[in-house]
């Protein structure tokens, strides 16, 4: 996203920095809340028929999970594309968090928790797709 913001010729440097900060804040908050909700909902699913291999094996089951992910994240990307995006974004953010003195230990820990939830949900979704 930062590359697209940097390429926006109609923004000055200050506006670009503001847009990048806002983008990062939105991604961190909205994705965190979406993935927390999905982790909770997926964890609450009770399989009562042990002959079923899961919803992803049902007709349109995989597309259901992908559409759910797209709806909750606001992205029209495949599960694997979202996984690649989040992994790249997480790596860049980890580097920023640990190379900067701007963040508290609590902020770093919260982000690491977010990453773990995100990773678990996405890996479950990749497995289902």
Overview of the structural elements:
With 129 residues, this protein is mainly α. The chain has one domain. Helices cover 74% and strands 0% of the residues. It contains 5 helices and no strands. The two termini are 25 Å apart.
Spell out the key features of this protein.
globular; 74% helix; 129 residues; single chain
Itemize the secondary structure elements and their pairings:
Elements: H1 2-6, H2 13-44, H3 61-73, H4 79-99, H5 105-128
Helix pairs in contact: 2-5, 4-5
Give a brief outline of the structure:
This protein is mainly alpha-helical. The chain has five helices and no strands. The protein is globular, with a radius of gyration of 17 Å.
Shape field? globular
Overall pLDDT metric: 78
How far is the first residue's CA from the last residue's CA?
A: 25 Å
Judged by helices, strands and strand pairing, the structural class is mainly alpha
State the total count of DSSP E strands. Answer: 0
- Which stretches are low in confidence, meaning pLDDT under 50 for 5 or more residues running? none
- Residue share in β-strands: under 5%
How many strands, which pairing sense, and closed or not: the largest β-sheet?
none
